[in-house]
Each structure stands twice: as structure tokens, then as C-alpha cells.
């Protein structure tokens, strides 16, 4: 949907990069993108629902990461 790379652009996302009110997700670190430029993705309804569900799953964890579980195992704290 975004064309973003899983390992360098999606998995490192932290909640401060998700703007629910503005309806977008930002990549702030240009070093993590192919073009070496920061970017943003408008968050359509379906991805906004997924992000809100993910937020609900992670809000009790001590992690700033949006995706902080791999196969049900919590990753390190951020």
C-alpha cells in the first residue's frame, strides 16, 4: 500500500510519527529511505483503523514502537 520497506521504514516506526489528527504517517529519518528524503503517507480509513487497533494492542507496553511484537514476543523497550 505504501511501497515502504518493512525492515527500514515500517518496523522502525514510532508513535510520534503517526499523526491520527492529520491522517498521516511520517518517516522522519532520511537515512532510512531509498531516496534519502523524509516522507509521509496519507493514512486512509483502512490503515487508520489498523493503526488504531495496533495502538490499542501496544498502549500497555513500555515501547515507543508501533510494531513491537514479533510472533507474539515483545521486543526491547524504546
Written account of the structure:
The chain has 78 residues and is an alpha+beta fold. It has one domain (6-74). The protein is built from two helices and five strands, in the order αβββαββ. It has helices at residues 6-10, 45-58; strands at 18-19, 24-27, 39-42, 69-70, 73-74. It has a three-stranded antiparallel sheet with strand order 1-2-3, with no helix packed on it. Strands 4-5 form a two-stranded antiparallel sheet. Strand 4 and strand 5 form a beta hairpin. The longest helix is centred in the middle third of the chain and has 14 residues, at 45-58. It is globular and about 35 Å long. The relative contact order is 0.19. The mean pLDDT is 75.
Number of strands: 5
Spatial strand order of the main sheet: 1-2-3
Strand content: 15-25%
Mean pLDDT: 75
Low-confidence stretches: none
User: Into which percent range does the helicity of residues fall?
Assistant: 10-25%
**SS content category:** alpha+beta
The helix/strand order is: HEEEHEE
N→C terminal distance: 27 Å
Q: What is the overall silhouette?
A: globular
Q: Give the count of structural domains.
A: 1
Amino acid at each position: 500500500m505504501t511501497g515502504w520497506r518493512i525492515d527500514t521504514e515500517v518496523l522502525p516506526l514510532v508513535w510520534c510519527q503517526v499523526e491520527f489528527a492529520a491522517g498521516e504517517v511520517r518517516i522522519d529519518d532520511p537515512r532510512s529511505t531509498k531516496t534519502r528524503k523524509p516522507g509521509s503517507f496519507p493514512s486512509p480509513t483502512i490503515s487508520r483503523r489498523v493503526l488504531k487497533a495496533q495502538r490499542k494492542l501496544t498502549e500497555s507496553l513500555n515501547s515507543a514502537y508501533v510494531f513491537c511484537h514479533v510472533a507474539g514476543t515483545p521486543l526491547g523497550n524504546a
